[in-house]
Amino acid sequence: MSPLETQTPAAPAMVRLPLLQLMLVGLQHVLLMYGGAVAVPLIIGQAAGLGREEIAFLINADLLVAGIATLVQSFGIGPVGIRMPVMMGASFAAVGSMVAMADMPGIGLQGIFGATIAAGFFGLLIAPFMSKIVRFFPPLVTGTVITAIGLSLFPVAVNWAGGGSAAATFGSPVYLAIAALVLGTILLINRFMRGFWVNISVLIGMALGYGLCGMLGMVDLSGLAQAPWVQVVTPLHFGMPKFELAPILSMCLVVVIIFVESTGMFLALGKITGQEVTPKMLRRGLLCDAGASFFAGLFNTFTHSSFAQNIGLVQMTGVRCRSVTIMAGAFLIVLSLLPKAAYLVASIPPAVLGGAAIAMFGMVAATGIKILQEADIADRRNQLLVAVSIGMGLIPVVRPEFFAQLPLWMSPITHSGIAMATLSALSLNVLFNILGGAERPVVAPTH
């Protein structure tokens, strides 16, 4: 082993925050990622023609696996878990492939779950090899990828702020006013208050926005009364999984893309928390991603990965201890057992989320720009690397149908702005700074 692999810096401290503060900051993480966490099972359940009750079961299953995976990723169990403040949830990278599988004769949900199990096992096998790529992520590449992550997330924030894609009057002044209230509250708290209040500024802003929506009759609680108080997620609820070669190959490709995305996210979080992410740490984190996907297939849900949007919340609040995401993981597990509580969280209007997300997703991009200051951006080739990679990352955001004529198996790459930017930055860094002999310096000069 190289010295880089054997020397592992201490994990972020398990800071003993007061219980109330710990719960509130953890709740912020849950509220931010909840919409993304439930979107994947909602989309796949509808594509598979499931009824409302079965889709609700899929959502609860996803919350359970996301909660357990978040606990393992944050706390660490043996050689698994990066031991950093990471939130886990169902990955969007596989949505296109899974929607297609749901319509295939003889595949359906059982085939999707079988492919997820097989791909998770494949990920466990390749994680140790994927962890060796840290050396290809100097500040030039890391900063570019993190900037692209923030920019690729920003359209989601704008869509939420305008009322969401399902809004009949997208961009209504009411939606914009609610998003502005949430954003303005966050900004004012960060300007005029300190400490605990800054840490929960996002939660306060969202609470005010939710209260206003409630008074305006914009909170939809339909289905709450019919939802059971307690429901336990059981494995193999939809029957034994099916293992078919084509779906398995497609999902294995998804796992590779998830690994590329997660590597960029882990390195971003390392910069925010002041930690050097070593190959050993990266291997632990990727093993958790793969293990979560393996067990997800058994527990009626889909491939899991780290959530990029929560990185912005870590930067925004300044709370960088693992105990916060451990608490958030516990919240997710409780929500998976209490469908009524999950309905309440799901009732948060998109405009409320949008006001908070504009600040947090922007913070991710700002972090990437800050890291790029460590690179030699005066070099024309490095400028070209940043420009092309960010441009490639924005293609799926600006025109999602741009690669529609390419083979379906490429969709996990071409539909992910993060994957496109990461692969571009890695390739151009090899071309410009590594090929042809000794590596060129890509770090900004100190004089």
From TrEMBL:
Any Pfam family: Xan_ur_permease
The keyword Ribonucleoprotein appears for this protein: no
Keyword Transmembrane helix among record annotations: yes
Keywords noted in UniProt: Cell membrane, Membrane, Transmembrane, Transmembrane helix, Transport
Organism field: Pseudomonas antarctica
Transmembrane segments: 20-43, 55-77, 107-129, 136-158, 170-189, 196-219, 245-270, 324-345, 351-372, 384-403, 409-432
NCBIfam families according to UniProt: ncs2, NCS2_1, pbuX
Major location category of this protein: membrane
Gene Ontology molecular function terms on file: xanthine transmembrane transporter activity
Lipid bilayer topology: Multi-pass membrane protein
Protein name: Nucleobase:cation symporter-2, NCS2 family
A Gene Ontology term for the protein's cellular component: plasma membrane
Cellular localisation: Cell membrane
Similarity comment: Belongs to the nucleobase:cation symporter-2 (NCS2) (TC 2.A.40) family.
InterPro entries named in the record: NCS2, UacT-like, Xan_ur_permease
